[in-house]
Design a protein that fits this description.
The protein is of the alpha+beta class and 414 residues long. It has 16 helices and 13 strands. It has helices at 2-21, 25-50, 57-92, 99-109, 117-123, 125-139, 141-149, 174-177, 183-187, 240-249, 281-288, 315-332, 365-369, 378-381, 390-395, 398-408; strands at residues 154-160, 163-169, 205-207, 210-214, 223-227, 253-258, 271-276, 291-295, 298-301, 309-313, 341-347, 352-358, 384-387. The strands form 2 sheets. It has a 10-stranded antiparallel sheet with strand order 3-4-5-7-6-11-12-10-9-8. Strands 1-2-13 form a 3-stranded mixed sheet. Helix 1 packs across helix 4 (99-109) and helix 6 crosses helix 7. The longest helix has 36 residues, at 57-92.
C-alpha cells in the first residue's frame, strides 16, 4: 500500500512538472485538484493515527481498514480506466483516448514505465489543443463570447454541379475582412501576432518556432492561429516543411495558409491557421469529384468553380513537387515576391494532401463597388463565403459567388 501511495504522489509531482514545462494550464489544474484529494486523505490518516488513543483498537482498525479499502478501490478503478483506453488506442487510434484518462494512466503507471503523459502530450498535440480551447473559452471573455456567438451563425447553401457552396453570416469577421494591408497601414499599427502585443488573456502551446493560439475571431469552432514567434513576412516557401509536419501532428485538422495578398490580415507576420477537416467543403469535393492532370504529379478538380490544384504523397515528394509548382507560378507572376496563392494541408492517415489555390487578385470588384463586403481568403476559396454584413448574406446569389471566384482565381495553363 505504501508503494501504491508513493507511485501516486511521485506521478502527480512529475505530472505537475510536465504541466509547468509545457505551459499547459488545464493539466496543471487537473493535477492541482488531485494533489488536494491526496493531501486530504493523508491529513485524515494522520489525524486518525495521532488521536488513535481516543478510540478503541477495534474502532481504529475499522477506520484505517475503511480508508485502505477506499484507496485500493480507487486504484483498481484507475487501472480499469487505463486498460479500457489502451484497448481503445490499439483498436481505434490514440486520439480516442481522452485527455483525462490519458493523464490518469500516466499519473499511476509512469513509475513502472507503462504509459508516459509527457510523451503523449508531446506527440498528441490534438489533446493539448482541446485543453487550450477549454481553458481559453472559460477565462477569456472575448473568446468565450465569439465562440458562443458561432452557435447562432446563419448558414446558406447553394447546389452547383454536384457540390455545395456555403455562405456564412459572421459579423465578428468584419475586422479581418476589411483589413488594410498597404504598407502605410501596416506600419501605422502594432503587429497583433507578436508576443508582446497579444492580449494578456491569450494562452499558447509552444510548437517549434511557433505559438499555437485560439483565434478570438473564429470562423469555425474550433479555430487556431499559429504564428511564428519571431516577426517575419508572410512567405510560405521556407515554411512548407513545418506546414506538413504540423498537419501530421494535428490529425483531423486542416492547416492552411493565406498569402500576403490572398486573405492574410497580418501579411507582415508569418502565420498558419487551422480548423477541423470536416469544416472544409473542398476536402469532400476532392474526394467526390473527378480530377484531371495539370502538370507532372499535379492534378486539378475538373469543372470546379475555382482553380484548385492538388499534390499527394510522402513528405519529400510533396515538398519537391510543390517547389516546382511554386517556381512555375512565380514565373507567371514575376512582379510579386511570392506567387499569389492559398494553401491547405491535410494528413489523410497514409499520406499528405496539399491543396494549392492560385490567385489572380485579392478582392473582387464587388468589394470596391460597395456591393458586397467579401474578401476571399482560404476558407472562402474552400467553399464557405464569409459575409460579415447581414444584408450581404441575404442578397448574395450563386451567380455572384461564381463571378467572385472567376475574378480572384488564376487558372494554370490558360
Amino acid at each position: 500500500m505504501i508503494w501504491i501511495v508513493l507511485y501516486i504522489i511521485i506521478g502527480m509531482l512529475w505530472q505537475a512538472s510536465v504541466a509547468v514545462r509545457l505551459r499547459n494550464t488545464e493539466l496543471y489544474r487537473l493535477t492541482h485538484r488531485r494533489m488536494f484529494i491526496v493531501a486530504g486523505v493523508a491529513v485524515v490518516g494522520m489525524v486518525l493515527y495521532f488521536f488513535r488513543g481516543m478510540f478503541g483498537s477495534d474502532a481504529v482498525a475499522g477506520i484505517v481498514g475503511f480508508w485502505l479499502v477506499m484507496v485500493v478501490a480507487f486504484c483498481i478503478v484507475w487501472v480499469a480506466l487505463i486498460a479500457a483506453n489502451v484497448f481503445s488506442a490499439a483498436r481505434y487510434g490514440q486520439e480516442w483516448m481522452t485527455f483525462r484518462n490519458r493523464s490518469l494512466g500516466g499519473m499511476v503507471l509512469w513509475p513502472v514505465g507503462i504509459l508516459s503523459v509527457e510523451r503523449a502530450l508531446r506527440s498528441e498535440i490534438v489533446l493539448r489543443v482541446e485543453c487550450l480551447f477549454s481553458s481559453q473559452t472559460r477565462k477569456w471573455p472575448l473568446a468565450r463570447k465569439n465562440f458562443s456567438d458561432l452557435r447562432n451563425v446563419r448558414l446558406r447553401s447553394f447546389d452547383h454541379d454536384g457540390y455545395k457552396i456555403y455562405v456564412q453570416c459572421n459579423p465578428a469577421r468584419i475586422i479581418s475582412t476589411t483589413a488594410k494591408i498597404d504598407k502605410d497601414s501596416i506600419a501605422g499599427r502594432k503587429c497583433f501576432l507578436c508576443p508582446a502585443n497579444r492580449p494578456k488573456e491569450q494562452d499558447l502551446i509552444a510548437w517549434r518556432d511557433y505559438d499555437i493560439l485560439v483565434n478570438p475571431y473564429p470562423i469555425f469552432d474550433p479555430h487556431l492561429t499559429i504564428p511564428c514567434r519571431e516577426h517575419q513576412p508572410q512567405l510560405i516557401k521556407s515554411h512548407l516543411g513545418d506546414m506538413l509536419d504540423l498537419a501530421h501532428e494535428l490529425k483531423g485538422w486542416a492547416v492552411f495558409y493565406n498569402g500576403p495578398k490572398c486573405g492574410a490580415s497580418a501579411p507582415d507576420h508569418f502565420h498558419f491557421q487551422a480548423v477541423r477537416v470536416a469544416n472544409i467543403p473542398l476536402y469532400s469535393d476532392y474526394e467526390n469529384l473527378e480530377h484531371e492532370d495539370v502538370k507532372e504529379n499535379v492534378v486539378r478538380i475538373k469543372d470546379y468553380s475555382r482553380e484548385v490544384l492538388c499534390i499527394e504523397g510522402s513528405r519529400g515528394f510533396v515538398i519537391e513537387t510543390m517547389e516546382n509548382l511554386y517556381a512555375d507560378l512565380h514565373y507567371d507572376q514575376p512582379d510579386d515576391e511570392e506567387p499569389m496563392m492559398n494553401v491547405v494541408c491535410v494528413w489523410t492517415g497514409r499520406k499528405w494532401r496539399l491543396f494549392v489555390i492560385p490567385r489572380l487578385t485579392y478582392r473582387p470588384s464587388q468589394y470596391f463597388e460597395g456591393k458586397y463586403v467579401i474578401s476571399p481568403g482560404t476558407i472562402e476559396m474552400c467553399g464557405v463565403m464569409i459575409a460579415p454584413k447581414v444584408e450581404d448574406y441575404g442578397n448574395i446569389t450563386l451567380d455572384d459567388i461564381l463571378d467572385i471566384y472567376r475574378q480572384v482565381s488564376y487558372v494554370v495553363g490558360v
